[in-house]
TrEMBL record:
Keywords: Signal. SUPFAM superfamilies: Immunoglobulin (SSF48726). This is Ig-like domain-containing protein. Residues 110-198 form the Ig-like domain. It holds the Pfam family V-set. It comes from Danionella cerebrum. Residues 1-21 form the signal peptide.
Amino acid sequence: MKSTCCFLLCLSLLLSNGVFGEEAEEVSATMGESLTLHTGVKKEKDDKIFWFSGPDNKILARLNGKPDSAKIYRSDVSLNKENGSLTIQSVSSKDSGVLNVQILNVNKQPLYKKFNIIVYDPLPIPQITRISKCELLCSVLNVSRVTLSWYNGTSLISNTSASDSHIDLSLPLKLEDKNNIYSCVAHNSIRNQTKHLDPLQSAVDGCSPEPRNVILLLLPLSAVFLVIGF
Ligand SMILES: *[C@@H]1O[C@H](CO)[C@@H](O)[C@H](O)[C@H]1NC(C)=O
Ligand SMILES: *[C@@H]1O[C@H](CO)[C@@H](O)[C@H](O)[C@H]1NC(C)=O
Ligand SMILES: *[C@@H]1O[C@H](CO)[C@@H](O)[C@H](O)[C@H]1NC(C)=O
Ligand SMILES: *[C@@H]1O[C@H](CO)[C@@H](O)[C@H](O)[C@H]1NC(C)=O
Ligand SMILES: *[C@@H]1O[C@H](CO)[C@@H](O)[C@H](O)[C@H]1NC(C)=O
């Protein structure tokens, strides 16, 4: 009796404080795509599973022990009755933030799990434009949390990043060796989009720092040394 009271008191304290485990699991999702969250434990018969969203713990879905007693509180979510996984059909910006799951069973310790959902925009394919004979510009418009990079083959040449606010991101490239294999890559923590440079765009003569120029610069110097030497 006493321990039951304590258990309920502890539970209500936990709930009122919104404490669902110490550390939130960070989950990345792309706007418009589906997202499935797992409870992280094998579902047992008689487990009651509750999914809540937001700082105010608004209930999203619940499973009341028996498999046929699932209840959904938002039309665009579904709950797997076998394992308790929650699926958001089409992630939107309002889904970013905290989502909690709580598993109750009279026979065991209650379990809480917290997710922190980070919603990413769909990642656009970068566009390459020429800004001068020997210089190209790679850009992606109106993006946040994206890094844009130029590669030669698999080696990174340069990069730049957008943080939380939406900006137009662009990165110039100085064409050098026309045998280089250039590509521009936009990536976030979910995926990447690559635009390969058309060989015709890089096949420009006279863009590399010609070794010939270096020799021409050094010639007068060596002439001076020659004069001094003799
Ligand atoms: C639960 O079932 C769903 C739908 O069948 C599946 O996508 C998901 O991977 C399952 N979760 C686990 C933890 O097995
Ligand atoms: C930039 O993207 C945001 C979020 O997708 C959108 O709300 C906004 O209208 C866009 N702005 C422009 C100028 O396209
Ligand atoms: C550029 O790439 C380097 C090496 O991968 C990385 O350490 C750095 O954080 C990146 N910088 C930006 C602005 O993304
Ligand atoms: C670009 O990559 C090619 C092939 O991997 C390599 O031969 C060349 O030296 C690289 N160019 C630069 C400028 O790093
Ligand atoms: C882009 O993603 C593909 C597959 O997801 C991966 O194989 C490739 O290494 C990634 N490229 C870069 C530059 O991150």
